[in-house]
Each structure stands twice: as structure tokens, then as C-alpha cells.
Inverse folding.
């Protein structure tokens, strides 16, 4: 199989999953929606932002505090709100039925295909 066909085959798999064709038909994942259909809700005292889930990363920072980075995709209309986000404020993030409370330490965003890709980093409150 040439590399272009292999690349197309991998892209046809559900998000964030690489699986062989022989296993694909044998495994019932029970996924009704892909992860990209999961909504993330981000709240601060001044902002409510909703977008499609992209990724979630947990890490320990230098002070051994749990640092969480969540990436989501928002609509262009959210840009004015994103420009006014201030770090240091308490925030809440809801993903499915899980809620995280923390202090916002960084936001990054960029444009891709008419949407805004947003990265939110926070220190989790225990």
C-alpha cells in the first residue's frame, strides 16, 4: 500500500484513533458521536465560551500543581470575547458531565478553516 492510500485510510478512522482495517470491523466501540462533537463550556466572571472539544492534557508544573490544557474550536463570532480574556481569574470548564475549577494562566488561539482554535491553560483547584 502506498503512503498516500495509507494516509487516507488513517484519516477515515474516528478522531484520535489509528486502527487496522481488519480490527475495525471486529470492535464495537459504542461511540455514537466522535469526540469532536463533544461540547466544552468555559466560564469566567466576564465570559461564557462554548466550542467543540479537541484535546485535553494534564501536566505537573514546577510547583507540583496540576496544570490542565484544553483545546477547543470556536466560531469567528467569539473573537471579540477571546481578545478580552484576562489571566489570573477563576474559571470553570465543563466537558460532558465533568466540571473543572481553576485559575486561568494562559490562552492561545489561531484561525483555521474559518474557525478559531483555542487553547486554555489553567491551574486546577483542589
Amino acid at each position: 500500500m502506498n503512503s498516500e492510500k495509507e494516509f487516507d485510510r488513517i484519516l477515515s478512522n474516528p478522531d484520535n484513533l489509528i486502527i487496522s482495517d481488519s480490527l475495525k470491523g471486529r470492535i464495537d466501540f459504542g461511540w455514537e458521536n466522535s469526540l469532536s462533537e463533544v461540547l466544552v463550556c468555559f466560564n469566567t466572571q466576564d465570559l461564557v465560551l462554548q466550542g467543540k472539544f479537541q484535546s485535553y492534557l494534564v501536566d505537573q508544573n514546577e510547583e507540583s500543581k496540576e496544570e490542565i490544557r484544553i483545546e477547543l474550536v470556536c466560531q469567528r463570532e467569539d473573537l471579540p470575547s477571546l481578545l478580552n480574556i484576562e489571566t489570573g481569574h477563576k474559571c470553570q470548564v465543563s466537558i460532558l458531565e465533568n466540571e473543572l475549577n481553576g485559575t486561568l494562566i494562559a490562552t492561545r488561539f489561531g484561525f483555521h478553516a474559518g474557525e478559531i482554535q483555542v487553547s486554555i491553560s489553567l491551574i486546577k483547584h483542589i
In short: The mean pLDDT is 80. The domain at 32-124 is CATH 2.30.300.10 (Phage tail proteins - horseshoe like beta roll fold).
